[in-house]
Amino acid sequence: MLTERQSRILALVIGEYVDGAEPVGSQHIARRSGLGVSAATIRNEMAELEHEGYLDHPHTSSGRVPTDKGYRFYVERLMREEQLSWEAQQTIRHQFHQVEGGQDAWAHLAASVLARAAENAAVVTAPRTASCHLKHLELVSLHDRTVLLVLVLDQGLLRQQLLTFEDVYTQEELATTAERLNQRFGGKSVREAEQAVELSAVEEVVMDSVTEVMRAVDAGGYDEAYLDGVRQLLSQPEFARGDQMLGLLELLDERNLTRAIPLRSLAQEGVTVIIGADNPRLDVANEAMRACSVVIGAYGAPGVASGALAVLGPMRMRYSRTISTVRYLSGVMSELMVESYE
Amino acid sequence: MLTERQSRILALVIGEYVDGAEPVGSQHIARRSGLGVSAATIRNEMAELEHEGYLDHPHTSSGRVPTDKGYRFYVERLMREEQLSWEAQQTIRHQFHQVEGGQDAWAHLAASVLARAAENAAVVTAPRTASCHLKHLELVSLHDRTVLLVLVLDQGLLRQQLLTFEDVYTQEELATTAERLNQRFGGKSVREAEQAVELSAVEEVVMDSVTEVMRAVDAGGYDEAYLDGVRQLLSQPEFARGDQMLGLLELLDERNLTRAIPLRSLAQEGVTVIIGADNPRLDVANEAMRACSVVIGAYGAPGVASGALAVLGPMRMRYSRTISTVRYLSGVMSELMVESYE
DNA sequence: CCTTAGCACTCTCATCGGTAGAGTGCTAAT
DNA sequence: ATTAGCACTCTACCGATGAGAGTGCTAAGG
């Protein structure tokens, strides 16, 4: 167990290191600690903190650097969560109410806002409906036997699919068919749509496609993750070397992103912080991930649709600000979702 | 004017440099040139090539490196365009016929294919219709006074927009309105839609949005550029240093990309190569751009819709292969466009 | 006149030793 | 328990040194 003074020193070391990105020495702390003790005392305490595994030593004669354990203790016990200024809150809120274009646009905006606020990379997944329902479908003749199927799902989620029919149909015929299918399947979930019987050949083709798309949406296979702030992340001094940047970029590649960051596997409420090698998926994740922390929050309308927001930064991160921003943003997004869901 | 032998030496130097990324010396060339002359002779010729501005010297005792002028001469006169193997052609073609989902998906795929083939970054703009026409519009009630406007434009281009009405309307009322507007404006261009008169209040709101979106599409403001292969580009040895990577990343940022690479300002036919400081937009482009070349091709159905493909790589690039890939891909995409346009 | 062998010259890169500076760990005194 | 003092260690920086690569020039040979 850490003494009061050790805790304060740990917090100070972390604070200084986060700001300066350089190992911090005992004198440094002694001077601006306000603890009224000498560097030697700090030194002894630091040695103890290192012994306990909260701090580390790059080499014999360098200052101390926090370890994973140090950061974790800081985040869980020492840190006080910052409140976002009312002004900052309003700015964010305002932006969301400006944007039109549905939930994908919100997620896109959220990634941008989050990256800017946290000065790191941000990932936001578009909300995934728990089980989507067909709101409306439309058939538009493009040419010959090619027809565009447009699906409107819950909350304005929009999908399109190209169909090829056996025969040629006029736009009027297609409209009639679409209307009939709307009457019959509007508001239905994929399960209900799948059990349809007594369909004409054309209706069969359309509904096959409809259920396929809806299943894909349900399975989350379609959910997009918006990524922003990559440059800010890579600007951090810990990734100054080219090969480290490349490693991180590989991680951020579309194909690896969701695998490396466990956006889905978290509680609906609250903010989760993954520090360095904590990452449960570290085996799949790449080496660069060891130097990173992730702050994850969920948002959504309970039982209807949900998504996740995350900030990815170096372990040396301003946790306090980042966490409160994620928390606030996930609140705003949830409100928006609830509002938009009738 | 260069002698035959000088040309061959220039081509050899470029070839070796492209492969090895290191300055090439006279011995190196002498040994594998097959010219049957000694290193000293090569040296003399190289000195002349340098005098003429085709080669450069990083420092007194290093091998030669091609200059912008050298590359340009190579691309315009010396290089023989490679033919893509029939197999490679089929692989590419096959992928495009696999993908469903319209032109945006094609552009996305093209970027991926191009990046992989050229081993550099690739940018592909989705095709922009010369002047888009309204194919179909749909109004879907989301809740209260919020309505989703879905627009289908030429060739399956799909746009959505959220509307807020003064009053609440049922889905039936909206459908009737949509049908009326479809009758009246289906197949019309933005210019015709703008001149509409005698609209009800609701129709006015809808058509305002419609023309706004269509104008945006026409202005190209909406056209998306798909970017792929960033990591491959950054893996090139010329960008090994972290700050250079950051510079390049800044360039590739969505906001700067289309400004730095003049995708629009090129002839409809043929492939354009911009080498290093040639770039007409170099002033806006960033320093990192000086070390880069861009190979640009256009594709599209004449007079209907067109887009552009580009490869961005270091000046030290396999021009021959890159150019022929761009050329081939632009052909494939054009065919697809023509086919898809009735 | 073109080619080429020979050679001095130049520049880079890696290595080495020396020094200054920062920060530690330990000891002994308070 | 705290702290001053001091030896110790490690890094970062600097300049010197030597090997290696490649050039430019000169003079000889076809």
Summary?
Two copies of one chain form a homodimer. Chain A has 342 residues and is α+β, with helices and mostly antiparallel strands.
Provide an overview of this structure:
The structure is a homodimer of 342-residue chains. With 342 residues, chain A is an alpha+beta fold. Chain A is 47% helix and 19% strand. Chain A has helices at 4-20, 26-33, 39-51, 68-78, 86-98, 103-118, 171-185, 190-194, 201-218, 230-234, 242-252, 254-260, 319-340, and strands at residues 55-56, 65-66, 121-125, 128-129, 134-143, 146-153, 158-164, 225-228, 271-275, 292-301, 305-314. In chain A, the strands form 3 sheets. In chain A, strands 3, 4, 8, 9, 10 and 11 form a 6-stranded antiparallel sheet that branches. In chain A, helix 2 (26-33) crosses helix 3 (39-51) and helix 6 runs antiparallel to helix 13. The first copy, chain A, is elongated and about 90 Å long. Chain A starts with a helix and ends with a helix. Chain A binds a DNA duplex (30 and 30 nucleotides) through helix 3.
Strand portion of chain A, in percent? 15-25%
β-strand number of chain A: 11
Radius of gyration of chain A: 26 Å
**Greatest interface:** A-B, 37 and 37 residues
The total count of helices of chain A amounts to: 13
Low-pLDDT segments of chain A: none
Write the layout of secondary structure elements.
The structure is a homodimer of 342-residue chains.
Chain A: H1 4-20, H2 26-33, H3 39-51, E1 55-56, E2 65-66, H4 68-78, H5 86-98, H6 103-118, E3 121-125, E4 128-129, E5 134-143, E6 146-153, E7 158-164, H7 171-185, H8 190-194, H9 201-218, E8 225-228, H10 230-234, H11 242-252, H12 254-260, E9 271-275, E10 292-301, E11 305-314, H13 319-340
Chain A binds a DNA duplex (30 and 30 nucleotides) through residues 23, 25-27, 37-41, 43-44, 46-47, 57-63.
